[in-house]
Amino acid sequence: MTEVAAKSTTTAKILGHPLNAWYVAAWDHEVTRKPMSRTIAKRPVALFRTEEGKAVALADSCWHRLAPLSMGKTVGKDGLQCPYHGIVYNSAGRCISMPAQETINPSATVPSFPIVERYRYVWIWMGDPSLADPDLVPDMHQMSSEEWAGDGMTIAAACNYQLILDNLMDLTHEEFVHSSSIGQDELSDSEFITSHEGNRVTVSRWMRNIDAPPFWLKNMRDKFPGFEGKVDRWQIIHFEAPGTINIDVGVAKAGTGAPEGDRSQGVNGFVMNTITPETDRTSHYFWAFMRNYCLDSQLITTQLRDGVHGVFGEDEAMLKAQQEAIDANPDYEFYNLNIDAGGMWVRRILEGMLAAEANQSARA
Amino acid sequence: MAATNIELWQDAEVTRIAEIADGIMRIELAPALPKRAEPGAHIDLMVRINGEEAKRSYSIVESSADGTKLVISVLKAPLSRGGSTFMHQLVPGDRLQITQPLQNFPLRVGAAHYILLAGGVGITAMANMASVLKRLKADYTLVFVGRKRSAMAYLAQLQDEHGSRLEVHVDAEGSSLNVNELLARAGADTELYMCGPIRLMDAVRRGWVERELDPSALRYETFGNSGWYDPEEFVVKVPKLNLEVTVPQGRSMLEALEEAGADMMSDCRKGECGLCEVRITEITGRIDHRDVFYSERQKRQSSKMNCCVSRVITTETGAQTDASSNAGPAMVTIEPN
Asked: What does the alpha-carbon distance between residue A97 and residue A75 come to, in Å, rounded to a whole number?
């Protein structure tokens, strides 16, 4: 028999997360002079801003007796003081004041994680800091572009981050999970095309000459008051490793050329999703809905944010239930379907990143 | 960068040895539980001195990306406590107990300018950092100071690797380092990392304070093994415990007291934490303060000492010749904590 050199993608039910990558630690407005704690990739991190407003992330545990620094207070230009014995660290994580002695122990440091502020988020690099290239921050430019308006929220998702990526890479679930808002039969009837390149995966689906579901009919009428009729609907899912999925979504009056590139007779949104592993079984799910019409309407911004919040609440409940079922059935494996193609390419990329890190890192 | 200070002990095989400079042995190790070493990391290992085990720390000079190969370099110190003699007798195939890489001296990525200062065998702590800074295309200068070229390990490789970013100062050639001139080049956004003999590091620390540079931007690691003066044999008396102990050249005062049965408190054993401090009630001679726990003021006052590293010498000059011409060994009376 010939041995087949299969490059098989596994279906680990709890997928590990790469560390050499940028993850969103927080919305920009969450990080202030008052320190906060957030667990990122299983490590508690203290987040705060310096007097100049620069976001800082230090390991949330004092060098001395490991008390949480996030319970302390910011002092001076860029210091964070331990709430227990008053040791002060600067933004580089170096001790700058050690009470009760005249010198500073040269070993007294806490890890300081590289930070980039971009697209209304504070991004953090939990891995090898010498690899933390700001150019590697995933593209989410719609978040801070004058051509787009919108807002979002954070979901504390009680599941492994990969389950959320799976959810977003295959939108046929909308027909069943979101039947009252964006779901419709045509979702599972229509073909999709999957492609991948480097650390990106794209899944495109077009549904032509269909009735707009309630969510999209409302959006069409915001831009085209009194609109009635059929639409062409699109969902173009863009994944960028390790956890960002921006979904180009919209509808246009049927037959006006949207599939060929003319979207002027439609409404276009981008569902911006970026997932940060918190633990193996919990995730920070940051999302926003950005639109490129009626940019000045705060009413529409609020309506869309609240509407999507309701839709995502349905996902949140499903993901939590799925994680619980996974944990309650340790002897069963995942099976894969044709609709999982996008999610499987995501896994392939993540597993490649994990393997690369395992090669150059701890086995301990 | 994550400070890793959990000591995970493992077996390691000596795979290659080579004398790479006067008295400096390059020792290549294959650890049983490989772990990648970050710049600034060191290992602790167990040496045998007169049949007894003792712990020593050595900087990791090079390591393979997967951590399966670790390289340390050891200077055979004529007045050593015996650890370097043991290390110089190793041959390929020997096995050692070592820790996984430990980190007390992390390199921070992102400073505008770096000065790496290495004195003598201190280059072992700086070589890896310099390589990383080169890879990151950082603005750095590696300053390497030595007595003579033949005693400066890795000099040729460093010249090849760092070119004009390497600055060499050789005492025997009259090009000794001028610390003031060096520090004049350090600005508010410069980080200086150093490893070397205590006189060099003290001079830099003093100059750094005088110039009011950011104290947290001066980084150094001390293994507590060098002093202002050569070690001498001295006597320590502890009336409270009814002890009079001779501290030989190759032993620390802490070790000598422990061997004599004193129950001493200590932790780092490299003059950083201050837990082993003892109060001095009487002294014949001077204290050679080798710690970084006390301030200059406290060292001048000399009412206490960190007995893990600091020693007693007979005279102010501390030279061995003076010691041998003197009537008796230096003597200190202490109250332990």
From this structure: 11
CB of B308 closer than 8 Å to CB of B278: no
Phi, psi of A349 (to 5 degrees): -65, -45
- DSSP 8-state class, residue A142: G
What number does CATH give the domain A22-135? 2.102.10.10
- Residues B98, B119 within the same domain: no
Owning domain of residue B258: 234-335
Residue B40 lies in a domain: yes
State whether ipTM is beyond 0.85. Answer: no
Contacts of B2 in chain A (CB under 8 A): 59, 111
Q: Is there a domain that residue B296 lies in?
A: yes
What top-level class would CATH report for the domain A141-329+337-355?
Answer: alpha beta
**Residues contacting B301, CB < 8 A, separation 6+:** none
Contact between B38 and B106 under an 8 Å Cβ cutoff? The reply is yes
B32 and B99 in a single domain? The answer is yes
Residue that terminates a domain, selected from B103, B125, B150: B103
Dump pLDDT digits (tens) for A93-125: 999 999 889 999 988 999 999 999 999 999 999
> How many domains does chain B divide into?
3
Burial class (CB in 10 A: 0-12, 13-18, 19+), A355: exposed
Query: Is A247 an interface residue toward B (CB < 8 Å)?
Result: no
B225 within a domain of the structure (yes/no): no
Q: Are residues B200 and B254 in the same domain?
A: no
Closest chain B residue to A131, measured at CA: B136
Whether residue B243 lies inside any domain: the answer is: yes
Residue A295, CB-side half-sphere exposure with 13 Å CA sphere: 9
Q: Name the interface residues of B facing A (CB cutoff 8 Å).
A: 1-3, 8, 33-36, 38-39, 65-67, 100, 104-106, 108-110, 132, 135-136, 215-216, 219-222, 268, 272-274, 292-295, 297-298
Three-state SS at A188? helix
Interchain pair A106, B221: CB under 8 A: yes
Report pTM: 0.88
| Range B237-265 average pLDDT | 94
Distance CA B84, CA B98 (A): 15
**What's the Cα-to-Cα distance from A31 to each of A25, A62, B97, B327, rounded to whole Å?**
9, 20, 45, 68
Say what the pLDDT of residue B7 is.
Answer: 86
Query: Is the Cβ pair A90, B216 closer than 8 Å?
Result: yes
Q: How far apart are the first and last CA of chain A?
A: 38
Where do the H-state alpha helices sit in A98-194? 161-169, 174-177, 186-189
Cα separation, A183 vs A270, in Å, equals 17
Residue type, A316: E
Find out whether A61 and A39 touch, Cβ atoms under 8 Å: no
Most confident segment among A9-18, A147-156, B319-328: A147-156
The predicted model gives B30-36 an average pLDDT of 93
Rounded to 10 degrees, the C-alpha dihedral A112/A118/A123/A125 comes to -60
pLDDT of residue A2: 41
- Label residue B22 exposed, middle or buried (CB < 10 Å: 0-12, 13-18, 19+): middle
Instruction: List Cβ neighbours of B168 (8 Å cut-off, separation of 6 or more).
Output: B144, B146, B152, B155, B159, B175
The number of beta carbons lying within 10 Å of the beta carbon of residue A326 is 17
Nearest to B291 by CA among B283, B278, B281: B278
Q: What is the pLDDT of residue B224?
A: 67
